Amino acid sequence: MDFMGIGLGELLLILVLALVVIGPERLPEVASQLGRAVADLRRQANQLSEEFQQSLQLAAEERKQQRLAATTGGAASGPYCAQCGARSLEGARYCSQCGHRLVEPPATTSSVGGS
Ligand SMILES: [Zn+2]
Fold first, then answer.
1. Torsion 30-32-34-36 (CA) sign
2. Does 64 lie in the same domain as 35?
3. Distance from the CA of 61 to the center of ligand 1, in angstroms?
4. Which pLDDT value is given to residue 53?
5. Dihedral (C-alpha) 86, 89, 94, 99: value to the nearest 10 degrees?
6. Residue 113 placed within a domain
7. Could you tell me the distance, in angstroms and rounded to a whole number, from the CA of residue 50 to the centre of ligand 1?
8. 65 CA to middle of ligand 1, Å?
9. CA neighbours within 13 Å on the CB side: how many for 13?
10. Same domain, 51 and 89
């Protein structure tokens, strides 16, 4: 058993020393307080690393979205490239990604000739 880098023998030595210094009456109380403190510390460390990872993930997600917005030029209404699927700026004739000629989005108001 390895307790925070301290061997079992050393831990026993510390316990004996604590027994001498603190006294046998107060030792259980102090030991439980110590145990609680260690558990609390470990919990806080876990929480901290969890929060750190969450913020890291959030930052990565943000960066990804920023990159996505940069590649699309922030234009949500521009025409799609049939070649690579990238959205170009509105009014663009050629794809900014691959240079493919852009197809105009089909007009929804065009009258479809019925039979
Ligand atoms: Zn393209």
1. negative
2. yes
3. 25
4. 95
5. -40
6. no
7. 40
8. 20
9. 5
10. no
CA of 101 from ligand 1 middle (Å) equals 8
Same structural domain, 29 and 82:
no
Number of domains present in the structure of the chain: 2
56 lies in which domain range? 8-72
Same domain, 14 and 54: yes
pLDDT in tens, 9-47: 888 888 788 888 888 788 788 888 989 999 999 999 999
Q: How far is CA 42 from CA 35, 48, 86, in A?
A: 11, 10, 48
**How much distance in Å is there from the Cα of 82 to the middle of ligand 1?**
7
Does some domain include residue 2?
no
Helices 8-22 and 27-72: crossing angle in degrees, nearest 10, is 130
Place of tokens 């479809």: 112
Which pLDDT tens digit goes with each residue over 37-69? Answer: 999 999 999 999 999 999 999 999 999 888 877
Report how far ligand 1's centroid is from the alpha carbon of 80 (Å). Answer: 8
